[in-house]
Amino acid sequence: MSTSPSDITADSDFLRACRGEPTSRVPVWFMRQAGRHLPEYLRIREGVAMLDSCFSTDLVVEITMQPVRRYGVDAAIFFSDIVVPLKAIGVDLDIVPGTGPVIADPIRRRGQLEQLRRLEPDDVESIAAAARALVGELGATPLIGFAGAPFTLASYLVEGGPSRDHRITKQLMYSQTGLWNDLLERLSHIAADFLRIQVEAGASAVQLFDSWAGTLSPSDYETYVAPHSRRVLESVADLGVPRIHFGVGTGELLDQMGDVGADVVGVDWRVPLDRAIEKVGPGRSVQGNLDPTLLFAPADVLHTKAAAAIERGRSARGHVFNLGHGVLPQTDPDAVKGLVDFVHGYERV
What we know:
Layout: H1 5-9, H2 13-19, H3 39-45, H4 50-54, H5 57-71, E1 76-77, H6 84-88, E2 93-96, E3 100-103, H7 125-138, E4 143-148, H8 150-159, H9 167-175, H10 177-200, E5 205-209, H11 218-235, E6 243-246, H12 254-259, E7 264-266, H13 273-280, E8 285-290, H14 299-313, E9 319-323, H15 333-345
Parallel strand pairs: 1-4, 4-5, 5-6, 6-7, 7-8, 8-9
Antiparallel strand pairs: 2-3
């Protein structure tokens, strides 16, 4: 009988921590571990547009594997972007260097919703092929699939690109609630479809990124956002893989972000991990939460702060060490490698 990728990865420290089971060491991976801080990434991406790289099976495999080879992290994060499924269904958008996702025709009217159809497997076959190839290369190292949460996707679509204050987004949310809910319902189905396709191709866990949820008050999150994020996470519950939910600046929302269906709640660096654990509650694991800028600090400072995060994480059901956001482009890869080695060796210190 052949062994499936999920069988091979099931006993990994990463998945055990996600499930709240004992681990042999603290597992560690980093958001944006595959990307601009790696010289091998810059070489392979030279002259290739971001979205083109996201739809290239060979490039996705190579870029996803680069930090696994270099650092020995406990999980790989699928190389993609949260707007990829929108591009795949035909939304006119681009990822502009130095800016981010830019939408050609921002969504402000009901008639524009028709373009947001369900994602079909054929739309992202090159991406599914990359996931299948990756699980073969990764062996016992789990692959994390991911998608953008409905609120964050909606913000890009409504604003037309990144926004500091999300003014237009909130204006639509408050003044046209019916349109808002219909928009987020469509986006929730697209996000759920993208997660399902990645898991069916072999991903062992999924992460839902709600990058801009921290701009919301708890009451607004509960009213305008939580039902749609819940739809995403509940729609993949039958797949039996851990579901991680992460947002930036979401210290006041951690319990709510767990309640929408997360098995693991990601915590940014602004909230001490022990306080975050109290807010999340005993039934979920946590992920995080070192300040990414500490990778620019002297090694003794970095290690002291990392040790503090590990110690605070002991009170959680399970703890996956990570940064409180992504690896910054200017980060020295040697500092990242040193941090991985420190976390892996911490129990022996």
